[in-house]
Amino acid sequence: MQVEFREYNPFDLWIWLEFATVPSPMEKDYIEELFNSWFYLGKLGGFDAENLQVQETGVDISYMDYDDRETDSTLMALMHNQGDFDYQGTWGRCWFDLGTSDAIALDVLINALKQLSKEYVHIERLIIGGENEDWPIKSSQESLFYESQDNNGRVNYLR
Question: pTM for the complete prediction?
C-alpha cells in the first residue's frame, strides 16, 4: 500500500483509498469498521502524544507507576467529527475533523490500514488530504461550521 500526503488541514481532512478492485460489501464493512474504531478512539482522546507514559517507559513495564495527575495536566486531544464513507468505482473516501488530536493518530491509522490491506482488503493507495480531480468535493460537505462576523468585526464560527 502506497501512502501519500497532500494538502493537510486537520479540521477539514479528506482521506482517500484506492482499491485494487471495486470493494465488495464485506470489504467495505472492514474499511468502515476500521475508520469508525479509529475515530471513536480519537473522539475519546486516545491520540494524545503528551501522555504516552507506557510507551516512554520502555520495554519493562512490569509494576510501572502510572501517574494519573500527568493525564489530567495535558491538553485535550480530541477528534471532533467524521463524515460518511463514500465509494465510487475503485475509490473510497471519508471526511474528518481531527480537532486537536495529535499526529500519532495518523500513524496508528496507516499501520492498521497496512495490515488490513495485507490480510483482507487490497488497498493500492492511501491518500491523506487534498482532493481528487475526477471526484470533486462539494464545498457544503467540507466543513460543518461557517464563519459569521458580529457588529464589532469579530469572526464567530457557527454550526
Answer: 0.79
